[in-house]
Structure formats: C-alpha cells, structure tokens
C-alpha cells in the first residue's frame, strides 16, 4: 500500500500511521512537490511527479497497486498511476464530480477523465455518484458529452435532476435523452446490489482500475475539500467487494482527504475560493470520519488482496 504524502493529510491518521510503522504501507515523500501539483499542474511538474513515482516499491505480480493520495485536489494524478498498465482496463470512478471539463488545463483535477480516456488501454470510464452542479447545463461548463455519446464514458449520478443540453447526445447506460433534457439513472433510486451486479456484467474488460474520491460519500462518512455527495460508505464497500470478487482489480487509488492549502499561486487561490466550500466548515470531530473511513477501506483491501 503506497501513501503518497503530498499534503500531510494522511500520515497523522492512526490507520495510516499504524501501517507505516509495521510495514504494511510505504510512504513516498512528495511534500516539496505537493503545492505545485495541487488543483492543477504544469507538464514539467507533472513529469517530476512521474519520476518520483518510479521510486515506489513494486507490488507482487498478483497484487493490485493501491495508492492513498491525499486531497481530491490531486485527482489529476490518476492517469500517471495508470501509465504502467499494458492490458485493456475499465476505469471505475467514484466521485461527486464528473471531472470531464474540456477547457481546463490538461493536468487539472476537473479535467483528468479526458486524459484517462486518451490512454490506449482504457476501454471505458464509468463514473458513479455525482450530485454536484457540474451536471447543470453541462455544455456551458465544458462537459465532454462526446465521450458520453460514444459510450466510452458512462455516468450514473447518485441523485440529480435532468440536465439541459443542446443537440443530439443520445441515450446511454446512465441516461436517456428526451428532447433537450438528459434524464439520469439516479443510483439513489436503484436496488444497489442489483445495479452493481448488472454493471459488472456489462464491463468490456476482465481487468479494472478503481479510483475513489471520498467526496462521493455523504458527510456522515467523509470530510473533504469539496462538496460532499450522497453515497454511503456501505454502498462503496459493497461495490468494491463485488468488483474484486468478479473482476481482476489491477489498481486502486483513493483521494479526498481534507487539507488546507495556503496557495502561493494567485490563480490557484482564486480557483479554490471560487469552487470550494469554506475551509473552516469542518471541526476536528468531522475530520476523524476520514480516518474511520480509511480504516474500513484499508482493512477491506487487506482482506481482499492479501
């Protein structure tokens, strides 16, 4: 298990500290690079991260690589974690945001799904759980609806009203178009075990990579730098167990810790202030939920992949 220490958010948590102490996890010190990567990154700094990443210990041939990454502001690092793969995979993406914006910088936490779709071995990206206002008039916000139309991207909100669009997008696994509205297949209305079983049967590959931003979870289960979704931890754990039981999991990355960021870059300060809720909304008691959730995730990974 790899702890990518970019922002101090993980190492003080008891579940992480215990595993670092007894050797079940390995820390990669990226604190000097963390501020340069947060929210978005230049290509030069992104490649510096890739070079640092090569220093991590290699897993055994039959074990998936598992990464805990820190704040969701670093979700755009996921394509770098995937880059060592050579076989076709489906990327299962749990998130409160679709991260599909086309006009954001190439290495941006709001646009990284587009980079993942460009990787030759990624056959499909399936995003589960958004509730955010990114789905309100998505074309005005730069959404990659072409990928949705092609079916290389499927999106299932946790709960969201129909989205207004212009032009023909067509129907997909997670939506139906009726005139100028996309009506979503909201997961909150589904029989969760039946939905997960159906999803697994529809996957185009035997191998999957799972990427989790804990802002997909309700505030009862996580406290992050972003607005929280509605999925409960029990739903997430059930899905992870089902995926591991029926598919070959080649990797997992988890982000969505809470970490204050004294941005030195003026554009990052502006973006954080514009897009993220106030930093003082969480108490220390709230933040303890992250450690509890991480303990549940780590224990499950150890059970499934030991």
Q: Which helices and strands appear, and what pairs or packs with what?
A:
Layout: E1 2-5, H1 14-22, E2 26-29, H2 34-37, H3 43-53, E3 65-71, H4 78-82, E4 89-94, H5 112-118, E5 122-128, H6 145-150, E6 153-156, E7 163-164, E8 175-178, E9 181-184, H7 192-202, E10 207-213, H8 233-246, E11 248-257, H9 266-275, H10 284-305
Parallel strand pairs: 1-2, 1-3, 3-11, 4-5, 4-10, 5-6, 10-11
Antiparallel strand pairs: 7-9, 8-9
Write up what this structure looks like.
It is a single chain. 32% of the residues lie in helices and 19% in strands. The strands form two sheets. The protein has an eight-stranded parallel sheet with strand order 2-1-3-11-10-4-5-6, sandwiched between helices. A three-stranded antiparallel sheet has the order 7-9-8, with no helix packed on it. The protein is globular and about 55 Å long. The protein is α/β, with parallel strands linked by helices and 306 residues long. It is built from ten helices and eleven strands. The longest helix has 22 residues, at 284-305. The chain has one domain: Arginase, Chain A.
Keywords:
306 residues, alpha/beta, Arginase, Chain A, 10 helices, 11 strands, 32% helix, globular, Arginase, Ureohydrolase_dom_sf
